[in-house]
């Protein structure tokens, strides 16, 4: 089921399937900023990544000697959530563990997603609660896709990413199968602009960690409509689109990431994993501000 959340500036559409945001529409000019989910390119709009980000090796991982299987990005994006609260400016969804989730992820959890609309900003908050009788381990991330180009009479190459601060950073190298090597590739040298071209994503996502910037903008050379993305305290940031060319780009803040190519240990030893004690909760959030 889809739900509408709106004010005088923005109209949001959220679905209980995956608790996924389906639309961010600017009401001043009826401009759609979120990717439309055209399956010819990519069927998602803004999936939630939990309890893994990216891939575990061969889609398998081990907890206390037992092997489990999870698809890329985990189970949240393919699960139905329950709506638990709704106001004029916010809506919340919950996914609780079940017999089915325990078969693929052996921890008892509650995952709550809240969308809050304030002026031209959407705040998206993730809350994980440990309702198990032991510590639980997970990664979590976001994968929103934005129209690129935003307007019909433009091209992908008219757009660029702009960090709020100049960065000197490498990107983490991905193998052809989507796992991380231990190599880093120099990418930004006292720069804050990444022009979007057909070559940018030819080797998969650009993955940064520990950036000085907390804000990245998706802008056009042709006009002043843009997306401002505040990824706050997320340590990793992925930028991605289809290497074959597609009219969208993803801005992905992560806690955790895909396995390294040589990872061979228990899930709790996975790079970037979050450990959550009994009865404790973990929160993270990000903001999307629309400049129309």
UniProtKB/TrEMBL annotation:
<protein>
    <submittedName>
        <fullName>Galactose mutarotase</fullName>
    </submittedName>
</protein>
<dbReference type="GO" id="GO:0030246">
    <property type="term" value="F:carbohydrate binding"/>
</dbReference>
<dbReference type="InterPro" id="IPR011013">
    <property type="entry name" value="Gal_mutarotase_sf_dom"/>
</dbReference>
<dbReference type="InterPro" id="IPR008183">
    <property type="entry name" value="Aldose_1/G6P_1-epimerase"/>
</dbReference>
<dbReference type="InterPro" id="IPR037481">
    <property type="entry name" value="LacX"/>
</dbReference>
<dbReference type="InterPro" id="IPR014718">
    <property type="entry name" value="GH-type_carb-bd"/>
</dbReference>
<dbReference type="Pfam" id="PF01263">
    <property type="entry name" value="Aldose_epim"/>
</dbReference>
<dbReference type="GO" id="GO:0016853">
    <property type="term" value="F:isomerase activity"/>
</dbReference>
<dbReference type="GO" id="GO:0005975">
    <property type="term" value="P:carbohydrate metabolic process"/>
</dbReference>
């Amino acid at each position: 089921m889809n739900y509408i959340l709106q004010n005088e500036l923005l109209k949001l559409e959220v679905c209980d399937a995956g608790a996924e945001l389906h639309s961010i529409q600017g009401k001043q000019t009826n401009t759609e900023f979120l990717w439309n989910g055209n399956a010819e390119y990519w069927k998602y709009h803004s999936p939630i990544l939990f309890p893994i980000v990216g891939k575990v090796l061969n889609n398998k991982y081990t907890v206390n000697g037992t092997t489990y299987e999870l698809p890329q990005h985990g189970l949240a994006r393919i699960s139905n959530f329950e709506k638990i609260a709704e106001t004029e400016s916010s809506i919340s969804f919950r996914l609780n563990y079940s017999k089915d989730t325990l078969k693929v992820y052996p921890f008892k959890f509650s995952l709550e997603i809240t969308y809050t609309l304030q002026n031209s900003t959407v705040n998206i908050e993730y809350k994980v609660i440990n309702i198990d009788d032991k510590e639980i381990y997970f990664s979590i991330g976001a994968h929103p896709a934005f129209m690129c180009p935003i307007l019909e009479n433009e091209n992908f190459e008219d757009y660029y990413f702009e960090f709020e601060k100049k960065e000197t950073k490498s990107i983490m190298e991905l193998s052809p199968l989507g796992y991380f090597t231990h190599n880093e590739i120099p990418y930004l040298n006292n720069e804050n602009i990444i022009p979007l071209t057909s070559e940018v994503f030819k080797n998969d996502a650009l993955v940064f960690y520990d950036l000085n910037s907390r804000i990245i903008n998706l802008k056009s050379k042709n006009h002043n409509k843009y997306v401002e993305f505040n990824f706050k305290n997320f340590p990793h940031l992925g930028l991605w689109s289809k290497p074959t060319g597609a009219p969208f780009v993803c801005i992905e803040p992560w806690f955790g990431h895909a396995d390294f190519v040589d990872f061979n240990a228990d899930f709790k030893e996975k790079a970037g994993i979050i450990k959550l004690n009994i009865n404790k909760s973990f929160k993270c959030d990000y903001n999307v501000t629309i400049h129309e």
